[in-house]
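dumping the sequnces here before i forget
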Amino acid sequence: MNRIFFILASMLTISCGSSNNPASTKAPEGNNITISFSADSAYSYIERQVAFGPRVPGTESHTKCLDYLVATLNSFGAQVSVQEGEGIDFYGKKMPVRNIIAHVGPEKAKRVLLCSHWDCRPFADNDADRSRINEPIDGANDGASGVGIILEIARQLQQKEATVGVDILFFDVEDYGKPDHIDVEYRPDTWCLGSQYWGRSDEGQQCRARFGILLDMVGAPGAQFLRENFSVAYAANIVDKVWKAAETTGHGDRFLFEDGGYITDDHYYINQLTDVPCIDIIHLENGGTSFGAYWHTHDDTMKNIDRQTLSAVGETLLQVIYNER
Ligand code: AHN
Ligand code: ZN
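..and the predicted 3d for all of it:
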């Protein structure tokens, strides 16, 4: 199933012709930086999101989670706003979009972008139990994990300022791509409606970040991250920077120097639509031919979140951010 999908996805890409768990890790010599990232804290931010129920656009869980994310970012001293927009779903209908935008150190000219999607897939289309494929998933990993790590980073940045400012984007309606069991014509642009809206908007066009890092499915036990190909195509130097930071912080076992295939994800639209080169840190398996077995199933629950994985990603990102000058 996943495999077939990937083969299809890469064919589409080609035919389009487009182009140990230390709480504290010492930075390398010369940079007198001690990084601390609390995996417990990130875990609790994920738990809170999941506790609202599936954050499916248009539901009460989604609205409540939006309010929680805005309030939490505000509590860390960031400048927060909600971008209201719309996209076109797989039926061809208009669909509202609520992107959450936060600026840490808004006055700073030198900036980096961190992003993740915050919505949940309304289908469990890969679940073995075919009677439940139209029930939404918890999206603990697929959605909440990236948001939880970024919230913990925002908390750390309030405690210890970085030289650079950080733009935070939580994209809505990433995971509403057409499922196989609904018989309408497939379009790849039914995924990532929030990033497509942001990319075309003034906010996207005026984003001053030097580069962006997208997090997607960054919490599963034992997760490994391969070098995704759109990331390499648009921002090879940023992939190198992040993969080196992972080695430096002792997480080279998670960030592999292996080809990850092409994934249509929010970073693709950021690269296509804006001037910000953006990479995707995304859990891939089998040489980039599939996502984890939990993907778009009812197994994507809090049981699918592991603190060691959260630390690997969070410490790597803080290493990158605190070393930007
Ligand atoms: C596609 O399936 C085309 N891209 C993966 C985007 C995604 C869905 N990330 C999480 N859920
Ligand atoms: Zn998904």
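Strands lie at 24-26, 34-36, 79-88, 94-104, 111-117, 165-171, 212-216, 225-227, 255-259, 278-282.
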